[in-house]
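Action item from last week, closing it out:
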Amino acid sequence: MKAKVSIIIIILIAVTCVISSCKTMAAITDVGAQVAGALGVIDQNVANAISQSARAIGTAAEEITPEQEYYIGRAVAANILTTYTLYNGNPALTNYLNLICAAITINSPRPDVYNGYRVAILDSTEINAFATSGGHIFVTRGLISAARSEDALAAVIAHEVSHIQLQHSIKAIKSSRITQAILVTGTSAAGAAIGMDVNELTDVFNETVGEIVLTLVNNGYSQSQEFEADDTAMRLLASAGYNPAGLLDMLNALRSVQTSSSGFGKTHPTPERRITNAQRSIGSFSVTDTSSSRQARFTTAAQ
C-alpha cells in the first residue's frame, strides 16, 4: 500500500511538472516526503525513495548550460561523421556557406553560441542537412546542388540555425531526462531499487543523451517544430537582407527531386505541406528583392 502511495505521489509530481515549475515542485515534494517520514505518516524507506525521486526529477529539469549544449552537440556531430564523410574538395564553397551563416546569425536574436556557429559540407548526393545544439551545421553536396540561388541556399542554413536557436534538440533532451527520472525512480519507489542515489540516476540521463539526440537526427523533429523552424527561418532571412521567399524557392526545388525514403524526405514534412505553411506568413514580410545582385557569386561558388 505504501509503495502504491509513493508511486501515486511521483505521478502527481510528473503531472504538476507539466503545469508548473518542475524543479520547484520537486523541491517541495522532497521536503514534504522527509517530513511525512519523520512523522510516521509513511514508511521512512518510502519517504527516502520519494525524496530521491523528487531530487532526480529536479536534476532532470535543470537548465542545460551553453557549454553543455555545445558538448552534447559535438558528440552528435561526431556521430554524424561516422555515417557521412566531410567534403574538403572545395574550401571556397565551405567558406561561402560560413559567410552566409554569419550574415544570418549576426542579425539574429542569438548571434553567438558557445564556440560559435560553423557550417561543413557532407560528401553525399543525398539531399539533407543537420544541425546540432553545439552550433554545427552540416549540408550535403546533394542539397547544395538542388539550390538555384544564394537566397535559397541561405534558407536551408537559416532553417538549421532556427533549430539551434529554438533549442529543439535540447528541449527534447530535457523532456526525455524528466521522463527517464520518473520511470527509474518510480521503480525505486516501488522498492526495486531504493538504494539508487541521485548520481546514479543522473548517469542514466547522461547515458541516454547521445542516443536521444542521434534519434532526433535520424528520425527528424516533430512536424510542428519543422514548421516553426521554417517560420523562424523566414524572419532570420528578412533580418539578414535575404528574401524570405528563398525558402519557397528551395522547397519548390526540393519538391521535384526529393524522395520520401531518405534525406529531408525521411525526416521532414513534405515540401507541399511546408510550402502551404510558409505561404501563410510570407505576406507579412515587406522586403526589397535584391537576390539578383547575389546570383553571380552564387554561380561562382556553387559551380
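Closing note: The radius of gyration is 23 Å.
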